[in-house]
Amino acid sequence: MVLSISSRVKLNNGVEMPWLGLGVWQGKPEDGPHVEAAVRTAIAAGYRSIDTASAYLNEGGVGRAVRESGVPREEIFVTTKVANPDHGYDKTLQAVDRSISELGLDYVDLFLIHWPVSIKASFQDTWRALEKVYAEGKVRAIGVSNFQIRHLETLLAECEVVPAVNQVEYHPRLTQVELHQYCKSKGIQLEAWSPLMYGRLLDEPVLLEMSERYGRTPAQLVLRWDLQNGVVTIPKSANPKRIYENADLFGFELSADDIERLNVLNRNERSGMDPDKFEQLWSW
């Protein structure tokens, strides 16, 4: 049960990952101070998980905020990802070293394949490289992002290390029930990016009615729904008020009926790219 902001889930390799984290997508290099400020605010609010990626171009700011937070490194869970142009065995090995250097950290807690791209190099080769750096202790856990069942089946047919996490778009309009069940059956923890659908969910009538009843914001209700469905969640915000609000998820629980009312909002509607179409759109 997720009882507090310090609650963690044990991944399939025994590493413990916070249920709640801060996402920093869209923070540009020139926004470095804003990214650092957001991470500092989140850590002050009790967050102990920060999610970035090589493609976000802000690993440096994230690393500085973590290093200068005053919180012991082992208490903060840092995730980053292999960018699409870095697929392939040798390029992934280089990308991992580059990310660790950019972050200024001795290791990364979780390294993900960002997208299941296999045009010039297969994601299986990328995974083999992640298995190597995992064995070397450069990363504490490895996983994937935006993998559908077919991608996972391809990977699991050849891998030595089962992914610890699959980070996907997940919210009440995109519940991905089959994927979630498949991941559970394989011991892969599902993690939600875009849990608030970039704010597009927040005027949903069901959420507005529930908000009045619970005395909680629509965002808090959705994030609590994630946790009660067993999904790690990483809402993105640079707004200090929202960062604190998004962390205030632990003094209440949604009823089983209200969980189901949110479950049935599913429309298979995406706010980001579809992993099944992404490879066709990706330009090298």
UniProtKB/TrEMBL annotation:
Native source species: Paenibacillus taihuensis
PROSITE patterns named in the record: ALDOKETO_REDUCTASE_1, ALDOKETO_REDUCTASE_2, ALDOKETO_REDUCTASE_3
Keyword Nucleus part of the UniProt annotation: no
MF terms (GO), sorted A to Z: oxidoreductase activity, acting on the CH-OH group of donors, NAD or NADP as acceptor
Keywords (A to Z) from UniProt: NADP, Oxidoreductase
Superkingdom of origin organism: Bacteria
Transmembrane segments: none
Annotated site residues (Lowers pKa of active site Tyr) in this chain: K81
Domain NADP-dependent oxidoreductase: residue ranges: 20-265
Family note: Belongs to the aldo/keto reductase family.
Chain positions recorded as substrate binding sites: H114
Oxidoreductase keyword on record: yes
Residues the record marks as active site: Y56
Name of the protein in question: Diketogulonate reductase-like aldo/keto reductase
Gene3D superfamilies on file: NADP-dependent oxidoreductase domain (3.20.20.100)
